[in-house]
Amino acid sequence: MPSARINGIDLHYEIHGSGPLLYLISGLGGSARFWEPNLAALTRDYTVVLHDQRGTDRSERPETAYSVEMLADDVVALMDHLGHTRARFIGHSTGGAICQVLATKSPARVEAMVLYASWPATDAHFRWCFKMRRNVLDGAGRDAYAHGNILFMYPAWYVQDNAEALEAEAHGAAEMAQPYAVVTARIDAILAFDWLEHLTEVKTPTLVVCAADDILTPPYQSRRLAHAIAGSRLEVLETGGHSCSRVVPEQFNALVGDFFATSSA
User: Fold this and answer.
1) What's the CA angle centered on 62, arms 172 and 113, to 5 degrees?
2) Domain boundary assignment for the chain
3) Spatial separation of the C-alpha atoms in residues 53 and 60, rounded to whole Å
4) Running DSSP on this structure, what letter comes out for residue 194?
5) What is the C-alpha radius of gyration for the chain, rounded to an integer number of angstroms?
Protein backbone atom coordinates (compact mmCIF):
# COMPACT_ATOMS: atom_id res chain seq x y z
CA MET A 1 0.00 0.00 0.00
CA PRO A 2 1.23 3.52 -0.75
CA SER A 3 2.66 6.22 1.46
CA ALA A 4 2.88 9.97 0.99
CA ARG A 5 5.15 12.64 2.36
CA ILE A 6 2.69 14.59 4.51
CA ASN A 7 3.69 17.54 6.68
CA GLY A 8 7.25 16.30 6.90
CA ILE A 9 6.56 12.61 7.62
CA ASP A 10 5.81 9.46 5.63
CA LEU A 11 2.13 8.62 6.06
CA HIS A 12 0.74 5.21 5.10
CA TYR A 13 -2.68 5.30 3.40
CA GLU A 14 -5.05 2.92 1.63
CA ILE A 15 -7.86 3.39 -0.88
CA HIS A 16 -10.55 0.74 -1.38
CA GLY A 17 -13.83 0.47 -3.29
CA SER A 18 -15.61 2.92 -5.56
CA GLY A 19 -18.24 5.61 -5.24
CA PRO A 20 -18.41 8.80 -3.14
CA LEU A 21 -15.40 9.51 -0.94
CA LEU A 22 -15.50 8.29 2.66
CA TYR A 23 -12.58 8.84 5.04
CA LEU A 24 -12.35 6.55 8.08
CA ILE A 25 -10.36 8.14 10.91
CA SER A 26 -9.19 5.84 13.71
CA GLY A 27 -8.90 6.48 17.43
CA LEU A 28 -5.91 6.68 19.76
CA GLY A 29 -4.30 3.56 18.29
CA GLY A 30 -4.32 5.40 14.97
CA SER A 31 -4.18 2.33 12.72
CA ALA A 32 -6.20 1.84 9.54
CA ARG A 33 -6.53 -1.82 10.56
CA PHE A 34 -9.19 -0.86 13.11
CA TRP A 35 -11.77 -0.67 10.31
CA GLU A 36 -11.21 -4.14 8.82
CA PRO A 37 -14.62 -5.51 9.97
CA ASN A 38 -16.38 -2.65 8.13
CA LEU A 39 -14.49 -2.46 4.86
CA ALA A 40 -16.38 -5.07 2.84
CA ALA A 41 -19.73 -3.39 3.49
CA LEU A 42 -18.59 0.22 3.15
CA THR A 43 -16.59 -0.32 -0.04
CA ARG A 44 -19.70 -1.54 -1.83
CA ASP A 45 -21.00 2.04 -1.83
CA TYR A 46 -17.97 4.27 -1.20
CA THR A 47 -14.38 4.93 -2.13
CA VAL A 48 -12.93 4.41 1.32
CA VAL A 49 -9.72 6.18 2.33
CA LEU A 50 -7.85 5.09 5.45
CA HIS A 51 -4.49 6.03 6.90
CA ASP A 52 -2.21 5.21 9.80
CA GLN A 53 -1.90 8.42 11.76
CA ARG A 54 1.50 9.90 12.46
CA GLY A 55 3.22 7.91 15.16
CA THR A 56 1.27 4.72 14.51
CA ASP A 57 1.54 1.38 12.72
CA ARG A 58 3.11 1.74 9.24
CA SER A 59 3.46 5.53 9.27
CA GLU A 60 6.52 7.41 10.49
CA ARG A 61 6.78 7.75 14.27
CA PRO A 62 8.31 11.11 15.20
CA GLU A 63 8.98 11.44 18.92
CA THR A 64 7.70 15.00 19.22
CA ALA A 65 4.74 16.78 20.76
CA TYR A 66 1.36 15.84 19.27
CA SER A 67 -2.01 17.57 19.14
CA VAL A 68 -5.42 16.73 17.73
CA GLU A 69 -5.14 19.81 15.52
CA MET A 70 -1.88 18.45 14.10
CA LEU A 71 -3.58 15.14 13.27
CA ALA A 72 -6.41 17.06 11.56
CA ASP A 73 -3.86 19.02 9.52
CA ASP A 74 -2.42 15.69 8.34
CA VAL A 75 -5.86 14.65 7.07
CA VAL A 76 -6.24 17.88 5.08
CA ALA A 77 -2.74 17.44 3.64
CA LEU A 78 -3.54 13.85 2.68
CA MET A 79 -6.70 15.03 0.92
CA ASP A 80 -4.64 17.60 -0.96
CA HIS A 81 -2.10 14.94 -1.93
CA LEU A 82 -4.87 12.73 -3.29
CA GLY A 83 -6.70 15.59 -5.00
CA HIS A 84 -9.77 15.24 -2.79
CA THR A 85 -11.54 18.51 -2.01
CA ARG A 86 -14.53 17.14 -0.07
CA ALA A 87 -15.56 13.86 1.56
CA ARG A 88 -17.74 12.15 4.11
CA PHE A 89 -16.05 11.17 7.38
CA ILE A 90 -16.41 8.63 10.17
CA GLY A 91 -14.22 9.34 13.17
CA HIS A 92 -13.80 6.90 16.04
CA SER A 93 -12.91 8.35 19.47
CA THR A 94 -9.78 10.45 18.79
CA GLY A 95 -10.81 10.26 15.14
CA GLY A 96 -14.07 11.92 16.16
CA ALA A 97 -12.06 14.68 17.82
CA ILE A 98 -10.13 15.09 14.56
CA CYS A 99 -13.43 15.38 12.68
CA GLN A 100 -14.63 18.07 15.10
CA VAL A 101 -11.54 20.11 14.24
CA LEU A 102 -12.02 19.53 10.50
CA ALA A 103 -15.68 20.61 10.64
CA THR A 104 -14.75 23.91 12.30
CA LYS A 105 -11.38 24.75 10.72
CA SER A 106 -11.96 23.23 7.25
CA PRO A 107 -15.76 22.98 6.92
CA ALA A 108 -15.76 22.96 3.12
CA ARG A 109 -13.88 19.64 3.26
CA VAL A 110 -16.54 17.81 5.28
CA GLU A 111 -19.74 16.89 3.49
CA ALA A 112 -21.16 14.94 6.44
CA MET A 113 -19.64 13.22 9.44
CA VAL A 114 -20.19 10.52 12.01
CA LEU A 115 -18.71 11.17 15.44
CA TYR A 116 -18.43 7.72 16.97
CA ALA A 117 -17.57 7.02 20.62
CA SER A 118 -16.03 10.46 20.84
CA TRP A 119 -16.03 13.38 23.28
CA PRO A 120 -16.04 17.20 23.05
CA ALA A 121 -13.76 18.00 26.01
CA THR A 122 -11.69 16.16 28.58
CA ASP A 123 -13.32 15.71 31.99
CA ALA A 124 -12.52 14.04 35.31
CA HIS A 125 -13.69 10.58 34.20
CA PHE A 126 -11.63 10.75 31.01
CA ARG A 127 -8.51 11.86 32.91
CA TRP A 128 -9.06 9.09 35.47
CA CYS A 129 -9.19 6.43 32.74
CA PHE A 130 -6.02 7.64 31.10
CA LYS A 131 -4.16 8.07 34.37
CA MET A 132 -4.79 4.38 34.99
CA ARG A 133 -3.78 3.41 31.44
CA ARG A 134 -0.60 5.46 31.72
CA ASN A 135 0.21 3.90 35.11
CA VAL A 136 -0.19 0.42 33.61
CA LEU A 137 2.14 1.34 30.76
CA ASP A 138 4.71 2.80 33.14
CA GLY A 139 4.50 0.12 35.79
CA ALA A 140 3.75 -3.09 33.93
CA GLY A 141 4.88 -2.43 30.36
CA ARG A 142 3.38 -2.49 26.89
CA ASP A 143 2.01 -6.06 27.04
CA ALA A 144 -0.08 -5.25 30.12
CA TYR A 145 -1.07 -1.93 28.53
CA ALA A 146 -2.32 -3.70 25.39
CA HIS A 147 -4.28 -6.25 27.44
CA GLY A 148 -5.78 -3.52 29.61
CA ASN A 149 -6.89 -1.66 26.51
CA ILE A 150 -9.07 -4.62 25.57
CA LEU A 151 -11.18 -4.02 28.68
CA PHE A 152 -11.71 -0.39 27.69
CA MET A 153 -12.47 -1.19 24.06
CA TYR A 154 -14.96 -4.07 24.30
CA PRO A 155 -17.99 -4.93 26.46
CA ALA A 156 -17.65 -7.71 29.02
CA TRP A 157 -19.82 -10.23 27.15
CA TYR A 158 -17.75 -9.75 24.00
CA VAL A 159 -14.49 -10.36 25.87
CA GLN A 160 -15.99 -13.52 27.38
CA ASP A 161 -17.17 -14.81 23.99
CA ASN A 162 -14.02 -13.87 22.05
CA ALA A 163 -11.25 -14.27 24.61
CA GLU A 164 -8.90 -16.25 22.35
CA ALA A 165 -9.16 -13.82 19.42
CA LEU A 166 -8.78 -10.83 21.72
CA GLU A 167 -5.71 -12.39 23.32
CA ALA A 168 -4.17 -12.51 19.85
CA GLU A 169 -5.29 -8.93 19.18
CA ALA A 170 -3.67 -7.71 22.39
CA HIS A 171 -0.48 -9.62 21.64
CA GLY A 172 -0.33 -8.14 18.14
CA ALA A 173 -0.91 -4.64 19.49
CA ALA A 174 1.92 -5.07 21.96
CA GLU A 175 4.25 -6.35 19.25
CA MET A 176 3.69 -3.32 16.99
CA ALA A 177 3.35 -0.77 19.77
CA GLN A 178 4.70 2.71 19.17
CA PRO A 179 7.75 3.94 21.06
CA TYR A 180 6.94 4.98 24.62
CA ALA A 181 7.48 8.66 23.79
CA VAL A 182 4.93 8.48 20.97
CA VAL A 183 2.28 6.68 23.05
CA THR A 184 2.56 9.18 25.86
CA ALA A 185 2.65 12.18 23.50
CA ARG A 186 -0.55 10.99 21.81
CA ILE A 187 -2.21 10.48 25.22
CA ASP A 188 -1.14 13.98 26.22
CA ALA A 189 -2.69 15.31 22.99
CA ILE A 190 -6.13 13.90 23.69
CA LEU A 191 -6.04 14.90 27.36
CA ALA A 192 -5.43 18.47 26.19
CA PHE A 193 -8.35 18.40 23.72
CA ASP A 194 -11.22 20.78 24.48
CA TRP A 195 -13.36 21.70 21.49
CA LEU A 196 -16.74 22.23 23.14
CA GLU A 197 -16.90 25.98 22.63
CA HIS A 198 -16.21 25.57 18.90
CA LEU A 199 -19.02 23.11 18.24
CA THR A 200 -21.72 25.79 17.94
CA GLU A 201 -19.94 26.78 14.69
CA VAL A 202 -20.47 23.37 13.09
CA LYS A 203 -22.96 23.37 10.20
CA THR A 204 -21.98 19.94 8.87
CA PRO A 205 -24.68 17.24 8.91
CA THR A 206 -23.64 15.11 11.87
CA LEU A 207 -24.55 11.72 13.30
CA VAL A 208 -23.33 11.05 16.84
CA VAL A 209 -23.07 7.34 17.66
CA CYS A 210 -22.12 5.51 20.84
CA ALA A 211 -22.97 2.35 22.74
CA ALA A 212 -24.73 2.29 26.08
CA ASP A 213 -21.97 0.10 27.57
CA ASP A 214 -19.00 2.23 26.48
CA ILE A 215 -16.96 2.78 29.65
CA LEU A 216 -14.24 4.98 28.10
CA THR A 217 -16.45 7.60 26.45
CA PRO A 218 -19.82 6.96 28.12
CA PRO A 219 -23.07 8.05 26.44
CA TYR A 220 -23.14 11.35 28.29
CA GLN A 221 -20.15 12.44 26.21
CA SER A 222 -22.08 11.78 23.01
CA ARG A 223 -25.06 13.65 24.41
CA ARG A 224 -22.77 16.63 25.02
CA LEU A 225 -21.67 16.48 21.40
CA ALA A 226 -25.19 16.18 20.04
CA HIS A 227 -26.43 19.00 22.25
CA ALA A 228 -23.64 21.32 21.09
CA ILE A 229 -23.95 20.64 17.33
CA ALA A 230 -27.17 22.13 16.00
CA GLY A 231 -29.28 19.72 13.98
CA SER A 232 -27.17 16.67 14.81
CA ARG A 233 -28.70 13.25 15.39
CA LEU A 234 -27.82 10.97 18.31
CA GLU A 235 -27.97 7.17 18.21
CA VAL A 236 -27.16 5.10 21.31
CA LEU A 237 -26.71 1.43 20.51
CA GLU A 238 -27.64 -1.14 23.12
CA THR A 239 -24.18 -2.71 23.15
CA GLY A 240 -20.79 -2.55 21.51
CA GLY A 241 -18.60 -0.85 24.09
CA HIS A 242 -16.02 1.61 22.80
CA SER A 243 -15.69 -0.40 19.57
CA CYS A 244 -19.25 -0.96 18.42
CA SER A 245 -18.18 -0.81 14.74
CA ARG A 246 -16.23 -4.01 15.42
CA VAL A 247 -18.61 -5.63 17.91
CA VAL A 248 -21.86 -5.10 15.96
CA PRO A 249 -20.54 -4.21 12.48
CA GLU A 250 -23.74 -4.97 10.56
CA GLN A 251 -25.76 -2.64 12.77
CA PHE A 252 -23.09 0.05 12.65
CA ASN A 253 -22.63 -0.15 8.87
CA ALA A 254 -26.37 0.06 8.25
CA LEU A 255 -26.74 3.02 10.58
CA VAL A 256 -24.00 5.11 9.00
CA GLY A 257 -25.05 4.08 5.49
CA ASP A 258 -28.60 5.27 6.09
CA PHE A 259 -27.32 8.53 7.56
CA PHE A 260 -25.05 9.33 4.64
CA ALA A 261 -27.76 8.41 2.12
CA THR A 262 -30.14 10.96 3.61
CA SER A 263 -27.79 13.74 4.76
CA SER A 264 -25.22 14.46 2.07
CA ALA A 265 -25.66 17.29 -0.38
Assistant:
1) 70
2) 3-121+193-263
3) 9
4) B
5) 17
How many CA atoms within 13 Å lie on the side-chain side of 90?
A: 26
Question: Residue 151, Cβ neighbours under 10 Å: how many?
Answer: 16
Pick the CATH number of 3-121+193-263 from 3.30.110.40, 3.40.50.720, 3.40.50.1820, 3.40.190.10: 3.40.50.1820
Amino acid at 158: Y
Kindly report the backbone phi and psi dihedral angles of residue 162, in degrees, each rounded to the nearest multiple of 5, phi listed first.
-130, 35
pLDDT at residue 97 in the model: 98
Instruction: Sheet containing 21-25: give its strands across.
Output: 3-6, 9-17, 47-51, 21-25, 87-92, 110-116, 206-211, 233-237
Q: What is the pTM of this model?
A: 0.97
Pairing of β 47-51 and β 21-25? parallel
Distance of alpha carbon 141 from alpha carbon 172, whole angstroms: 14
Beta strand 87-92 with 110-116: parallel, antiparallel or unpaired?
parallel
Q: Could you report the per-residue pLDDT of 17-55, keeping only the tens digit for each?
A: 999 999 999 999 999 999 999 999 999 999 999 999 999
Nearest Cα to 49, choosing from 109, 117, 126?
109
pLDDT in tens, 3-13: 999 999 999 99
How far are the Cα atoms of 16, 64, 209 from residue 182, in angstroms, in the given order?
Answer: 28, 7, 28
